[in-house]
Structures are given as C-alpha cells and as structure tokens.
Amino acid sequence: xxxxxxxxxxxxxxxxxxxxxxxxxxxxxxxxxxxxxxxxxxxxxxxxxxxxxxxxxxxxxxxxxxxxxxxxxxxxxxxxxxxxxxxxxxxxxxxxxxxxxxxxxx
Length: 106
What we know:
This protein is mostly beta strands and 106 residues long. It has a single domain, classed as Immunoglobulin-like (Sandwich), CATH 2.60.40. The chain has strands spanning 2-7, 15-23, 35-40, 44-47, 57-65, 71-79, 88-89, 94-99. The strands form two sheets. A five-stranded antiparallel β-sheet has the order 3-2-5-6-7, with no helix packed on it. Strand 5 and strand 6 (71-79) form a beta hairpin. The protein is elongated and about 50 Å long. The relative contact order is 0.32.
C-alpha cells in the first residue's frame, strides 16, 4: 500500500524526519511496521509493508514530524481476501499532508 507523505507550509530545513506509527484494526501499535522516513519539500511515497496474515479492517498511519513536532494521521482499509494470498487494499493512495511545523519561538 502506497502512502504519500508531505509537509504543509514552508520550512527552512531541506528535509524533515517523519516517524510513522502504524496501528492495527484493534488499535494496537504494530511496531514491526513503524518507521522513520526522510521527507523533502517534494514529498515522498512510502510503502506500508503489510503481510498475508495481517488482519483486515481499518489500520491507522500516524506521522510525527521530528523536527517541527506536528502530526497527522490517516486510515487505510485492508479488505479480507478469500484466497488469502495477499491482503487486499482499498484503492487509492493515502496522503498525509497536514504535518504542521512548529513555528513557536524557542
């Protein structure tokens, strides 16, 4: 499943590190799927590495901007497959583009 990542607003930094936290349909953190991704001004596509045995339902992708402190989240619908070869994903790309950069003075 492709997840589009981006930053909203301008930043003096050439890139930001987003920490991605993935939660399964039961709300449990799937640590094996969580990752840190470097994202520049043009954005980045990240592949959510779901496995055959992963549960169908709504998975949550939460992005936390390590530089600016903002966060955003989106849900991905994983559909059950009768042949159990691969998890079926609802069509489309999830775009997380609401990561706010911290503009408060330090």
